[in-house]
Structure formats: C-alpha cells, structure tokens
Amino acid sequence: MPTESRPATVDRLPLRRRLLPVVALLLLAPWAAECSWGGFTLDDFLPVLIFLGPMYGGAAILIRETARHLGAGWPAIVLLAAAFGVLQAGLVDQSLFNPGYLNDTEYADTRAAAEATLVPGLGFSVRQAFDYVGNHIALTICAPIVLVESFLGPDRRLRPWLGRPGLAVVGVIYLLGSLLIFSDSGRTGFLASPLQLTFAAAVVLALIATALLPRWRHPHPRHARRAPGPVWVGLVVVVHFGTEVTPGWPGMVIALALAAGTAGLLAFWSSRAGWGQRHVLAAGTASLVTAAAFAYLVPPYSPATPSAALAADVAVSVVTVALIGGAWWRLRRASPVVHLGAS
C-alpha cells in the first residue's frame, strides 16, 4: 500500500459525499469483527452494528484518518490496528486476562487449549493474544478500510475524509462506545491486576509510537521485477490462517513464523513494479474470505438452532461476495491501471 512524503489534504467534496465512506466504515468494522466469522445469528446483526459500531467503527475511522493525515501507508495502519487490538482485549473488555470471559458462550471449552500457552506472572494466553489481536488487525481494521477505499476513486482513496472537528466527534463516539463495553462486557466482576493493565498499556503505547515513526511516510524505490498477480497475494495471506492445527507452544512458533513470513513477503512484493490497489484488496480481504468459509464450521456465541446458524452463515457468504465482488468491479471500472507506491 502506498506511502506519502507529506500529509494529504482533506477532501473538499460536499459533506454528504465525504461522510458516506465514514458511515460505511463505521458499520462495516463491527460486522467484519463479530459477524463475518459466524459469531452471531441474523437476528443479532443489527444490534451488533448499533452497540459495537461506535467502538469498532470509531477505531477503524480514527486509525485510517490518522494514517492518511500523516501521509503514512499500510505499515502504520497495521501497527495502529495492533495497538487497538491490545487496547481492546487488554484494557477495555479485558478478555485477554479474564480466564472466564467465554464461560457463558459456546467457546467455553477453548479454555484448556488457551492455558497451554499461558505466560507466568502476566496471566494471559499467547494463543488467545495472537488470535484476538490478529483478528482485530485483519478483520476489524484492515479489511473494512481496504474495502471502503477500493470503492473510492484513485483521487480520493488516500485522502483524509474528516477534518479536526470530525475527528473529535469520532473520538468521542469511540470513547463512549468503549466505556459502554467496559461497563457491560461480561467480565462478571473481573478486573485485571495493575501489572496486567500496565503491561497492556505499555504495549499499546509502544505500538503507537512505532506506527508514528517518520519512516512510514517516505516512499521507497521500486524494484524492476513485477509483483505477482493479486490472486497469488491473496492465497499467500490465506496460508497463515488455520494455524491452530498444532496446539501449545509448537503451534504458536509456527503461527508467529508464518505471520512474520507473510508480512515480509507482502512488504517485498509491494515494492515491485505493478503493485496496485487490486493487490491491496486481495491481501486485505483474504482474512474476510477465510472467516466466511470457517463460519460454517464454528457455532455462534450463543446457542442457536441449526437452521438459524446456517441462515447467518449463508448471509455472511452473500455479503462477503457482494462486498469483495463490488470492490473488484469498482476497481476495474474506475482505475484499471492505477499503480500505487510501495509500502
């Protein structure tokens, strides 16, 4: 994904047109985060958008706007998404530290597998941290941003949508949404220890500081060799999913190695000639395709009849295909040969 050498200017379009992608991201982020992998039935889709939209959608907008205002590229977005993942799981709902967080759901039996990678003293599972933070990076933040930006023309794709007043409003919405989840997150009286909270806050600050480094704002020279086709990019991203086959610490070593290798390969390919928004779309939505496929294999949080669960899974497939297919069509129609700078 591209980087810029200087901050971008805000769109000067009418307010209605500038707010359209903002509203789209506000709604798409919670759907991708909680519904796209089969976590809820159809009846719960609307409540998810209403109650989780301010937190998930607000975070996605703030992260996207911060990167675009600074003229930074996808490395900064990914790092800020990781910071949000740690903030959400470590400080807001504290699911990272609460061993009983999933006790009242259909995933209560995953506790034993999580405890196989428990970190002594800090009391959190590396497996759960990898899954929670990784899903927030891929599904909550990156996939929705990629989709919404792909629907925009190349002249608007990298420009900020909101000025300072708009960012302030979104910031308030995000804070209120986070406070709502903190007060009603199913923690059953659980509160992380000061050491756990300090650790999570330190990680969040470190990730934010790294994301704001000036290096992400400078374009890099392109290599002469051409990038592979978008389909290959998407397939490589899909490979690093499904790493829970090997349990315990060996599985975590494999998962971390695959994630690091995938990130390195994407960074290398994105510096080649021909890398464009189609490649970014393939990389950014591979997680959404994988989640939609696995939705048929996992239960929703709350017990549901087989027909209700299947209806939700089919709806997820239809929405996923429509979103990604529409984005691909839009790119072919609006910017078939636009090439973006390396990230």
Question: Care to describe what's here?
Answer:
With about 350 residues, this protein is mostly helical. The chain has eleven helices and four strands. It has helices spanning about 15-35, 40-70, 75-90, 110-115, 125-150, 165-185, 195-210, 230-240, 250-270, 275-295, 305-335; strands spanning about 120, 125, 225, 270-275. Strands 1-2 form a two-stranded antiparallel sheet. Strands 3-4 form a two-stranded parallel ribbon. A hairpin with a 4-residue loop joins β1 (about 120) and β2 (about 125). The chain is globular and about 50 Å long. Mean pLDDT is about 90; it is low at about 1-5 and about 335-343.
Summarize the structure.
The protein has 343 residues and is an all-alpha fold.
The biggest sheet, with number of strands, parallel, antiparallel or mixed sense and barrel status, is: 2 strands, antiparallel
Distance between the termini: 5 Å
Determine Rg (CA atoms, Å): 19 Å
H/E element sequence: HHHHEEHHHEHHEHH
Helix content: 55-70%
Overall pLDDT? 88
Q: Strand order, biggest sheet? A: 1-2
Specify the structural class.
mainly alpha
- Low-pLDDT parts are 1-5, 336-343
Number of helices: 11
Please report which band the strand proportion falls in: under 5%, 5-15%, 15-25%, 25-35%, 35-45% or over 45%: under 5%
Shape: globular
Tell me the total number of β-strands.
Answer: 4
